From TrEMBL:
CDD domains for the chain: PIN_VapC_PhoHL-ATPase
Organism: marine sediment metagenome
PANTHER family for the chain: PIN DOMAIN-CONTAINING PROTEIN, PROTEIN PHOH
Domain PIN: 10-154
Keywords on record: ATP-binding, Nucleotide-binding
GO cellular component terms given for this protein: cytosol
Family: In the N-terminal section; belongs to the PINc/VapC protein family.
Annotated protein name in UniProt: PIN domain-containing protein
Length: 475
Protein backbone atom coordinates (compact mmCIF):
# COMPACT_ATOMS: atom_id res chain seq x y z
CA UNK A 1 0.00 0.00 0.00
CA UNK A 2 2.91 2.34 0.65
CA UNK A 3 3.94 2.11 -3.02
CA UNK A 4 1.45 4.89 -3.75
CA UNK A 5 4.23 7.31 -2.84
CA UNK A 6 6.07 6.66 -6.13
CA UNK A 7 3.92 9.27 -7.91
CA UNK A 8 6.04 12.10 -6.52
CA UNK A 9 4.94 11.83 -2.91
CA UNK A 10 7.37 11.01 -0.19
CA UNK A 11 7.15 8.82 2.89
CA UNK A 12 8.22 10.55 6.10
CA UNK A 13 9.19 8.40 9.08
CA UNK A 14 8.63 10.52 12.20
CA UNK A 15 10.80 10.36 15.29
CA UNK A 16 9.09 10.73 18.67
CA UNK A 17 10.65 14.10 19.44
CA UNK A 18 8.98 15.67 16.39
CA UNK A 19 5.52 14.92 17.81
CA UNK A 20 6.63 15.91 21.30
CA UNK A 21 7.80 19.24 19.90
CA UNK A 22 4.76 19.92 17.68
CA UNK A 23 1.60 17.82 18.12
CA UNK A 24 0.20 19.20 14.86
CA UNK A 25 3.13 17.73 12.90
CA UNK A 26 0.76 14.97 11.75
CA UNK A 27 -0.99 17.54 9.59
CA UNK A 28 2.07 19.47 8.38
CA UNK A 29 3.33 17.26 5.54
CA UNK A 30 0.82 18.37 2.89
CA UNK A 31 0.24 15.68 0.24
CA UNK A 32 3.01 13.39 1.47
CA UNK A 33 2.60 10.23 3.56
CA UNK A 34 3.64 9.66 7.18
CA UNK A 35 4.86 6.44 8.80
CA UNK A 36 4.81 5.91 12.58
CA UNK A 37 6.93 3.02 13.91
CA UNK A 38 5.51 1.13 16.89
CA UNK A 39 8.48 2.18 19.02
CA UNK A 40 7.38 5.81 18.57
CA UNK A 41 3.95 4.97 19.99
CA UNK A 42 5.66 3.23 22.92
CA UNK A 43 7.79 6.31 23.64
CA UNK A 44 4.71 8.54 23.43
CA UNK A 45 2.97 6.31 25.95
CA UNK A 46 5.89 6.63 28.36
CA UNK A 47 5.95 10.42 28.01
CA UNK A 48 2.24 11.14 28.53
CA UNK A 49 2.36 11.55 32.32
CA UNK A 50 3.28 14.81 33.97
CA UNK A 51 2.53 18.52 33.83
CA UNK A 52 5.37 19.60 31.56
CA UNK A 53 4.84 21.12 28.12
CA UNK A 54 6.20 17.94 26.53
CA UNK A 55 3.68 15.80 28.43
CA UNK A 56 0.83 18.06 27.32
CA UNK A 57 2.01 17.78 23.73
CA UNK A 58 2.14 13.99 23.97
CA UNK A 59 -1.42 13.85 25.28
CA UNK A 60 -2.54 16.08 22.42
CA UNK A 61 -0.86 13.77 19.91
CA UNK A 62 -2.72 10.82 21.48
CA UNK A 63 -6.02 12.68 21.06
CA UNK A 64 -5.24 13.41 17.41
CA UNK A 65 -4.37 9.76 16.78
CA UNK A 66 -7.54 8.62 18.54
CA UNK A 67 -9.64 10.84 16.26
CA UNK A 68 -7.89 9.43 13.20
CA UNK A 69 -8.51 5.88 14.43
CA UNK A 70 -12.22 6.58 14.82
CA UNK A 71 -12.21 7.97 11.28
CA UNK A 72 -10.54 4.81 9.93
CA UNK A 73 -13.06 2.50 11.57
CA UNK A 74 -11.36 -0.90 11.13
CA UNK A 75 -7.98 -2.58 10.88
CA UNK A 76 -8.17 -2.97 7.09
CA UNK A 77 -8.45 0.80 6.66
CA UNK A 78 -5.55 1.30 9.05
CA UNK A 79 -3.38 -1.10 7.02
CA UNK A 80 -4.18 0.83 3.83
CA UNK A 81 -3.28 4.13 5.46
CA UNK A 82 -5.57 6.62 7.17
CA UNK A 83 -6.46 9.59 5.00
CA UNK A 84 -5.28 12.73 6.79
CA UNK A 85 -7.88 15.51 6.89
CA UNK A 86 -7.47 18.95 5.35
CA UNK A 87 -6.71 21.44 8.09
CA UNK A 88 -6.07 25.15 8.35
CA UNK A 89 -2.33 25.41 7.81
CA UNK A 90 -1.99 29.11 8.56
CA UNK A 91 1.45 28.80 10.12
CA UNK A 92 3.02 27.78 6.82
CA UNK A 93 1.59 30.71 4.81
CA UNK A 94 0.73 28.37 1.97
CA UNK A 95 -2.42 27.68 0.01
CA UNK A 96 -4.60 24.83 1.34
CA UNK A 97 -3.58 21.41 0.04
CA UNK A 98 -6.33 19.72 -1.96
CA UNK A 99 -4.97 16.19 -1.68
CA UNK A 100 -3.68 15.15 1.72
CA UNK A 101 -1.34 12.29 2.42
CA UNK A 102 -2.01 9.16 4.45
CA UNK A 103 -0.87 8.03 7.87
CA UNK A 104 0.64 4.55 8.05
CA UNK A 105 1.33 2.61 11.24
CA UNK A 106 3.77 -0.24 11.62
CA UNK A 107 1.51 -3.28 11.52
CA UNK A 108 4.11 -5.98 10.81
CA UNK A 109 7.52 -6.95 12.13
CA UNK A 110 10.10 -4.89 10.23
CA UNK A 111 13.74 -5.53 10.93
CA UNK A 112 16.99 -4.84 9.22
CA UNK A 113 20.37 -5.95 10.44
CA UNK A 114 22.21 -2.84 11.60
CA UNK A 115 25.94 -2.79 12.43
CA UNK A 116 26.77 -4.56 15.68
CA UNK A 117 27.59 -1.23 17.30
CA UNK A 118 23.92 -0.21 16.92
CA UNK A 119 21.89 -2.63 19.09
CA UNK A 120 18.24 -2.77 18.04
CA UNK A 121 16.77 -2.52 21.53
CA UNK A 122 17.49 1.21 21.65
CA UNK A 123 14.57 3.28 20.39
CA UNK A 124 16.65 5.39 17.99
CA UNK A 125 18.29 2.35 16.48
CA UNK A 126 14.94 0.59 16.13
CA UNK A 127 13.67 3.59 14.15
CA UNK A 128 16.81 3.41 11.96
CA UNK A 129 16.18 -0.27 11.37
CA UNK A 130 12.57 0.36 10.31
CA UNK A 131 13.54 3.26 8.02
CA UNK A 132 16.18 1.09 6.35
CA UNK A 133 13.68 -1.77 5.96
CA UNK A 134 11.16 0.58 4.32
CA UNK A 135 13.84 1.90 2.00
CA UNK A 136 14.78 -1.60 0.91
CA UNK A 137 11.18 -2.84 0.61
CA UNK A 138 10.01 0.13 -1.47
CA UNK A 139 13.03 1.22 -3.56
CA UNK A 140 10.89 3.50 -5.76
CA UNK A 141 9.62 5.45 -2.75
CA UNK A 142 11.61 8.30 -1.22
CA UNK A 143 11.86 7.46 2.48
CA UNK A 144 12.88 10.34 4.73
CA UNK A 145 13.55 10.14 8.46
CA UNK A 146 12.43 13.33 10.25
CA UNK A 147 13.95 13.98 13.67
CA UNK A 148 14.92 16.88 15.95
CA UNK A 149 17.77 14.70 17.24
CA UNK A 150 20.99 15.70 15.45
CA UNK A 151 22.83 12.52 16.44
CA UNK A 152 20.06 10.33 15.04
CA UNK A 153 20.18 12.25 11.77
CA UNK A 154 23.94 11.77 11.62
CA UNK A 155 23.63 8.00 12.17
CA UNK A 156 20.90 7.84 9.53
CA UNK A 157 23.10 9.63 6.99
CA UNK A 158 25.98 7.27 7.73
CA UNK A 159 23.66 4.30 7.03
CA UNK A 160 22.49 5.84 3.75
CA UNK A 161 19.07 6.99 4.99
CA UNK A 162 17.94 10.42 3.93
CA UNK A 163 17.18 12.42 7.07
CA UNK A 164 15.94 15.94 7.77
CA UNK A 165 15.19 18.23 10.66
CA UNK A 166 11.57 19.24 11.26
CA UNK A 167 11.33 22.59 9.49
CA UNK A 168 7.66 23.46 9.79
CA UNK A 169 8.17 25.35 13.05
CA UNK A 170 10.84 27.57 11.52
CA UNK A 171 9.74 31.19 11.46
CA UNK A 172 12.46 32.28 9.02
CA UNK A 173 14.88 30.53 6.70
CA UNK A 174 17.75 32.61 8.10
CA UNK A 175 17.94 34.55 11.35
CA UNK A 176 19.59 37.42 9.44
CA UNK A 177 16.17 38.04 7.86
CA UNK A 178 14.62 38.81 11.26
CA UNK A 179 13.02 42.23 11.54
CA UNK A 180 15.45 44.62 13.26
CA UNK A 181 12.89 47.28 14.21
CA UNK A 182 14.85 50.24 12.86
CA UNK A 183 16.09 51.43 9.50
CA UNK A 184 18.46 54.15 8.33
CA UNK A 185 17.12 56.63 5.82
CA UNK A 186 19.09 57.01 2.60
CA UNK A 187 20.98 60.26 2.09
CA UNK A 188 18.54 61.67 -0.50
CA UNK A 189 15.39 60.42 1.25
CA UNK A 190 13.80 63.87 1.64
CA UNK A 191 14.46 64.78 -2.00
CA UNK A 192 12.85 61.60 -3.34
CA UNK A 193 9.52 62.11 -1.55
CA UNK A 194 6.40 62.87 -3.58
CA UNK A 195 4.90 64.92 -0.77
CA UNK A 196 5.95 66.23 2.66
CA UNK A 197 3.82 68.00 5.26
CA UNK A 198 4.45 68.76 8.94
CA UNK A 199 2.44 69.83 11.98
CA UNK A 200 2.60 69.97 15.75
CA UNK A 201 0.19 68.20 18.09
CA UNK A 202 0.38 68.03 21.90
CA UNK A 203 3.96 69.21 21.83
CA UNK A 204 5.07 66.55 19.32
CA UNK A 205 6.17 67.16 15.72
CA UNK A 206 4.61 65.02 13.00
CA UNK A 207 5.41 64.60 9.32
CA UNK A 208 3.26 63.12 6.59
CA UNK A 209 5.46 61.66 3.87
CA UNK A 210 4.56 60.03 0.58
CA UNK A 211 6.94 57.97 -1.50
CA UNK A 212 7.82 54.50 -2.71
CA UNK A 213 10.21 53.78 0.17
CA UNK A 214 7.32 54.08 2.65
CA UNK A 215 5.82 50.82 1.37
CA UNK A 216 8.67 48.89 3.01
CA UNK A 217 8.02 50.35 6.47
CA UNK A 218 6.12 48.78 9.37
CA UNK A 219 3.99 50.39 12.12
CA UNK A 220 6.12 51.70 15.00
CA UNK A 221 9.30 51.11 13.05
CA UNK A 222 12.11 53.42 14.17
CA UNK A 223 13.70 55.48 11.41
CA UNK A 224 16.76 57.66 11.63
CA UNK A 225 19.06 59.73 9.51
CA UNK A 226 22.53 60.20 11.04
CA UNK A 227 24.51 63.38 10.58
CA UNK A 228 25.14 66.69 12.21
CA UNK A 229 22.93 69.08 10.23
CA UNK A 230 19.89 67.05 9.22
CA UNK A 231 19.86 64.17 11.72
CA UNK A 232 16.43 62.87 12.66
CA UNK A 233 15.04 60.11 14.87
CA UNK A 234 11.37 59.27 14.44
CA UNK A 235 8.83 56.47 14.67
CA UNK A 236 6.29 55.42 12.06
CA UNK A 237 3.03 56.50 13.70
CA UNK A 238 0.72 55.16 10.98
CA UNK A 239 1.09 53.86 7.45
CA UNK A 240 -1.26 53.41 4.49
CA UNK A 241 0.28 52.14 1.26
CA UNK A 242 2.79 54.81 0.18
CA UNK A 243 1.70 57.42 2.75
CA UNK A 244 3.00 57.41 6.32
CA UNK A 245 2.80 59.67 9.36
CA UNK A 246 6.03 59.78 11.33
CA UNK A 247 6.50 61.26 14.79
CA UNK A 248 9.72 62.70 16.17
CA UNK A 249 11.00 60.85 19.23
CA UNK A 250 11.71 62.06 22.73
CA UNK A 251 15.43 62.27 23.40
CA UNK A 252 15.93 60.19 26.54
CA UNK A 253 19.71 60.71 26.32
CA UNK A 254 19.30 64.05 28.10
CA UNK A 255 19.24 64.22 31.89
CA UNK A 256 16.01 66.26 31.92
CA UNK A 257 14.27 63.39 30.08
CA UNK A 258 15.63 60.58 32.24
CA UNK A 259 13.42 57.61 33.10
CA UNK A 260 13.68 56.72 36.81
CA UNK A 261 17.14 58.29 36.76
CA UNK A 262 18.22 56.27 33.70
CA UNK A 263 19.25 57.92 30.43
CA UNK A 264 19.79 56.24 27.07
CA UNK A 265 23.45 55.81 26.13
CA UNK A 266 22.98 55.17 22.43
CA UNK A 267 20.44 55.45 19.62
CA UNK A 268 18.94 51.99 20.05
CA UNK A 269 18.43 52.47 23.79
CA UNK A 270 16.64 55.74 23.02
CA UNK A 271 14.42 53.87 20.56
CA UNK A 272 13.69 51.24 23.21
CA UNK A 273 12.69 53.81 25.86
CA UNK A 274 10.35 55.54 23.39
CA UNK A 275 8.56 52.23 22.75
CA UNK A 276 8.51 51.27 26.43
CA UNK A 277 7.06 54.63 27.49
CA UNK A 278 4.43 54.83 24.73
CA UNK A 279 0.98 53.95 26.18
CA UNK A 280 -0.32 53.13 22.69
CA UNK A 281 2.22 50.32 22.27
CA UNK A 282 0.85 47.23 24.04
CA UNK A 283 3.59 44.79 23.04
CA UNK A 284 7.33 45.46 22.91
CA UNK A 285 10.13 43.03 22.11
CA UNK A 286 13.77 43.84 22.83
CA UNK A 287 16.60 41.72 21.41
CA UNK A 288 20.24 42.15 22.22
CA UNK A 289 23.33 40.51 23.61
CA UNK A 290 24.24 40.60 27.28
CA UNK A 291 24.90 44.07 28.61
CA UNK A 292 22.87 46.05 26.08
CA UNK A 293 20.51 47.26 28.83
CA UNK A 294 17.32 45.34 28.04
CA UNK A 295 16.31 44.61 31.63
CA UNK A 296 17.46 47.93 33.09
CA UNK A 297 15.60 50.05 30.53
CA UNK A 298 12.44 47.94 30.86
CA UNK A 299 12.40 48.09 34.66
CA UNK A 300 13.04 51.85 34.64
CA UNK A 301 10.11 52.39 32.26
CA UNK A 302 7.91 49.99 34.24
CA UNK A 303 8.61 51.69 37.60
CA UNK A 304 8.05 55.17 36.15
CA UNK A 305 4.68 54.24 34.64
CA UNK A 306 3.58 52.17 37.65
CA UNK A 307 4.63 54.36 40.59
CA UNK A 308 4.79 57.87 39.10
CA UNK A 309 2.23 57.83 36.28
CA UNK A 310 -0.12 55.28 37.97
CA UNK A 311 -0.71 53.74 34.53
CA UNK A 312 -0.28 50.15 35.73
CA UNK A 313 -1.25 48.52 39.01
CA UNK A 314 1.91 46.45 39.37
CA UNK A 315 4.84 44.91 37.55
CA UNK A 316 4.92 41.17 36.93
CA UNK A 317 8.19 39.53 35.93
CA UNK A 318 8.60 35.94 34.78
CA UNK A 319 11.03 33.77 32.89
CA UNK A 320 11.52 30.16 31.89
CA UNK A 321 13.55 28.24 34.46
CA UNK A 322 16.19 26.55 32.31
CA UNK A 323 19.49 26.18 34.20
CA UNK A 324 22.79 26.91 32.45
CA UNK A 325 24.70 24.29 34.46
CA UNK A 326 23.65 21.38 36.65
CA UNK A 327 20.31 21.73 38.43
CA UNK A 328 20.68 22.49 42.16
CA UNK A 329 17.57 20.51 43.09
CA UNK A 330 14.28 21.52 44.69
CA UNK A 331 13.97 25.04 46.07
CA UNK A 332 12.10 25.74 49.32
CA UNK A 333 9.42 28.34 49.94
CA UNK A 334 6.50 29.92 48.12
CA UNK A 335 6.20 30.43 44.37
CA UNK A 336 7.93 33.81 44.60
CA UNK A 337 10.70 32.46 46.85
CA UNK A 338 11.32 29.56 44.47
CA UNK A 339 11.63 31.99 41.55
CA UNK A 340 14.02 34.35 43.37
CA UNK A 341 17.25 32.48 42.40
CA UNK A 342 16.22 32.82 38.75
CA UNK A 343 15.69 36.56 39.11
CA UNK A 344 19.24 37.66 39.84
CA UNK A 345 19.06 40.09 36.90
CA UNK A 346 16.01 41.73 38.48
CA UNK A 347 17.73 42.20 41.84
CA UNK A 348 20.92 43.53 40.24
CA UNK A 349 19.00 46.13 38.24
CA UNK A 350 16.87 47.15 41.22
CA UNK A 351 20.08 48.07 43.06
CA UNK A 352 20.96 50.41 40.18
CA UNK A 353 17.45 51.88 40.08
CA UNK A 354 17.27 52.52 43.83
CA UNK A 355 18.45 56.12 43.63
CA UNK A 356 17.39 57.29 47.09
CA UNK A 357 19.08 60.46 48.30
CA UNK A 358 21.99 59.56 50.56
CA UNK A 359 20.76 62.10 53.12
CA UNK A 360 17.74 59.86 53.78
CA UNK A 361 20.04 57.32 55.42
CA UNK A 362 19.61 53.58 55.69
CA UNK A 363 15.95 53.87 56.72
CA UNK A 364 15.10 55.88 53.62
CA UNK A 365 17.00 53.50 51.38
CA UNK A 366 15.24 50.50 52.88
CA UNK A 367 11.84 52.21 52.56
CA UNK A 368 12.43 52.89 48.87
CA UNK A 369 13.61 49.33 48.31
CA UNK A 370 10.49 47.95 50.03
CA UNK A 371 8.29 50.20 47.87
CA UNK A 372 9.91 48.96 44.67
CA UNK A 373 9.68 45.32 45.63
CA UNK A 374 6.05 45.71 46.73
CA UNK A 375 5.14 46.75 43.18
CA UNK A 376 7.09 43.94 41.50
CA UNK A 377 5.71 40.40 41.58
CA UNK A 378 7.75 37.41 40.49
CA UNK A 379 5.66 34.66 38.92
CA UNK A 380 6.38 31.22 37.49
CA UNK A 381 5.41 30.28 33.95
CA UNK A 382 3.97 27.03 35.27
CA UNK A 383 0.93 28.78 36.75
CA UNK A 384 0.03 31.16 33.91
CA UNK A 385 -2.70 29.10 32.26
CA UNK A 386 -6.17 30.50 32.81
CA UNK A 387 -4.97 33.79 34.31
CA UNK A 388 -5.92 37.27 33.09
CA UNK A 389 -3.71 40.25 33.88
CA UNK A 390 -5.51 43.59 34.16
CA UNK A 391 -3.53 46.86 34.05
CA UNK A 392 -0.24 45.06 34.55
CA UNK A 393 3.23 45.65 33.14
CA UNK A 394 4.30 42.08 32.29
CA UNK A 395 8.00 41.43 31.63
CA UNK A 396 9.01 38.10 30.08
CA UNK A 397 12.76 37.70 30.58
CA UNK A 398 14.93 35.21 28.66
CA UNK A 399 12.07 34.85 26.17
CA UNK A 400 14.34 33.12 23.63
CA UNK A 401 13.93 29.90 25.64
CA UNK A 402 10.16 29.79 25.09
CA UNK A 403 8.47 27.90 22.28
CA UNK A 404 5.96 29.63 20.03
CA UNK A 405 3.14 27.79 21.82
CA UNK A 406 4.35 28.91 25.26
CA UNK A 407 4.69 32.46 24.00
CA UNK A 408 1.12 32.41 22.72
CA UNK A 409 -0.08 31.10 26.09
CA UNK A 410 1.60 33.99 27.90
CA UNK A 411 0.62 36.83 25.58
CA UNK A 412 -3.03 35.76 25.50
CA UNK A 413 -3.13 36.29 29.29
CA UNK A 414 -3.14 40.06 28.71
CA UNK A 415 -6.31 41.86 29.74
CA UNK A 416 -7.32 45.51 29.21
CA UNK A 417 -4.61 48.03 30.05
CA UNK A 418 -1.77 45.49 30.15
CA UNK A 419 1.58 45.96 28.42
CA UNK A 420 3.83 42.99 27.66
CA UNK A 421 7.58 43.28 27.10
CA UNK A 422 9.65 40.33 25.85
CA UNK A 423 13.40 40.40 26.47
CA UNK A 424 15.98 38.00 25.15
CA UNK A 425 19.03 37.11 23.13
CA UNK A 426 18.37 34.50 20.45
CA UNK A 427 22.08 33.68 20.37
CA UNK A 428 21.79 32.17 23.89
CA UNK A 429 19.12 29.45 23.72
CA UNK A 430 19.20 26.79 26.45
CA UNK A 431 15.97 24.90 25.65
CA UNK A 432 16.49 21.59 23.80
CA UNK A 433 15.30 21.45 20.15
CA UNK A 434 14.92 25.24 19.93
CA UNK A 435 17.08 27.28 17.58
CA UNK A 436 17.36 30.91 16.53
CA UNK A 437 14.82 30.38 13.74
CA UNK A 438 12.31 28.37 15.84
CA UNK A 439 12.43 30.31 19.12
CA UNK A 440 9.19 31.78 20.42
CA UNK A 441 10.90 35.18 20.61
CA UNK A 442 11.71 35.06 16.89
CA UNK A 443 8.12 33.97 16.30
CA UNK A 444 6.51 36.97 18.02
CA UNK A 445 8.95 39.48 16.53
CA UNK A 446 8.01 38.30 13.05
CA UNK A 447 4.26 37.99 13.68
CA UNK A 448 3.78 41.32 15.50
CA UNK A 449 5.74 43.55 13.13
CA UNK A 450 2.61 44.50 11.14
CA UNK A 451 0.47 45.41 14.17
CA UNK A 452 0.05 49.10 14.92
CA UNK A 453 0.19 48.56 18.72
CA UNK A 454 3.49 46.69 18.85
CA UNK A 455 7.12 47.68 18.53
CA UNK A 456 10.49 45.99 18.30
CA UNK A 457 14.10 47.07 18.48
CA UNK A 458 17.37 45.16 18.37
CA UNK A 459 19.94 46.65 20.76
CA UNK A 460 23.40 46.56 19.24
CA UNK A 461 25.90 48.11 21.63
CA UNK A 462 26.82 46.70 25.00
CA UNK A 463 26.92 49.29 27.78
CA UNK A 464 27.75 47.08 30.77
CA UNK A 465 31.52 47.53 30.88
CA UNK A 466 34.54 47.47 28.63
CA UNK A 467 35.37 44.01 29.99
CA UNK A 468 31.92 42.64 29.05
CA UNK A 469 32.12 44.27 25.60
CA UNK A 470 35.51 42.72 24.92
CA UNK A 471 34.29 39.29 26.12
CA UNK A 472 31.24 39.45 23.84
CA UNK A 473 33.41 40.26 20.84
CA UNK A 474 36.31 37.89 21.45
CA UNK A 475 35.10 34.86 23.43
Amino acid sequence: MIKRAIDGKRLFVLDTNVLMHDPTALYRFDEHDIFLPMVVLEELDRGKKGLSEVSRNVRQVSRFLDELMLQAGNSDAIAKGIQLPTVDNRDTHKAPVKTRGRLFFQTTQMTYDLPKDLPGQLADNAILSIATSLQNSYPETTVILVSKDINLRIKATVLGIHSEDYFNDKVLDDVDLLYKGSTELVADFWNDLNRLESWTKEGRTYYEVEGDVVQDWYPNQLIYSPGEGNSIEAVVHSINDSVADIKLLHDYRKDNHSVWGITARNREQNFALNLLMDPDVDFVSLLGQAGTGKTLLTLAAALTQTIEHKRYAEIIMTRVTVPVGEDIGFLPGTEEEKMTPWMGALMDNLEVLNKTDASAGEWGKQATNDLLQSRIKIRSLNFMRGRTFLNRFLIIDEAQNLTSKQMKTLITRAGPGTKIVCLGNIAQIDTPYLSETTSGLTYVVDRFKNWEHSGHITLLRGERSRLADYANENL
